[in-house]
Amino acid sequence: LQDSELTLSTVSLVQQGRVAIGDEIGFALKAKLVVVLIGERPGLSAVNSMGIYMTFMPRVGLTDESRNCISNIRPGGMSYPQAADKLFYLITESFRRKLSGVNLKDDASNKLLD
């Protein structure tokens, strides 16, 4: 973030929140992009896992196809630095292409192979 032109807005903490809460908060704050970090629910295969959900131009009423998800972030899964790199790539591409979700694929690993 420090070397990019991106700025961080207000951080909101929500207890028992769901993914779509980011749309409401982002819209209220007039954010261009929202990132939601959610600890996974107990009872799933990895209770210590975190998911990151990113949405360009958040607003009430969006559905899952409007978001990008990075999941299984935990020891033994995707590392925190890997998740941060993937998120930065998706944020950068989201602003460049003005979209998120199913229309924005994570091609970062393909670019490394070129």
Overview of this protein structure:
The protein is of the alpha+beta class and 114 residues long. The protein has one domain (21-101): Rossmann fold, CATH 3.40.50. The chain has 3 helices and 3 strands. It has helices at 21-28, 80-97, 108-113; strands at 33-39, 50-56, 67-73. The longest helix is centred in the last third of the chain and has 18 residues, at 80-97. The radius of gyration is 14 Å and the shape is globular.
Describe the structure in brief:
By secondary structure, this protein is of the alpha+beta class. It has helices at 21-28, 80-97, 108-113, and strands spanning 33-39, 50-56, 67-73.
Structural class: alpha+beta
Q: Provide the low-confidence segments as ranges.
A: none
Query: What is the number of E strands?
Result: 3
- Percent of residues in helices: 25-40%
Largest sheet: 3 strands, antiparallel
Shape: globular
CATH topology: Rossmann fold
Strand order of the largest sheet: 1-2-3
Q: Span from first to last CA?
A: 25 Å
Mean pLDDT: 88
What CATH architecture do you see? 3-Layer(aba) Sandwich
CATH superfamily: Ethanolamine ammonia-lyase light chain (EutC)
CATH class category label:
Alpha Beta
- Overall domain count: 1
Q: How much strand? A: 15-25%
How are helices and strands ordered from N to C?
Answer: HEEEHH
- Helix run count: 3
**Radius of gyration, CA atoms, in whole angstroms:** 14 Å
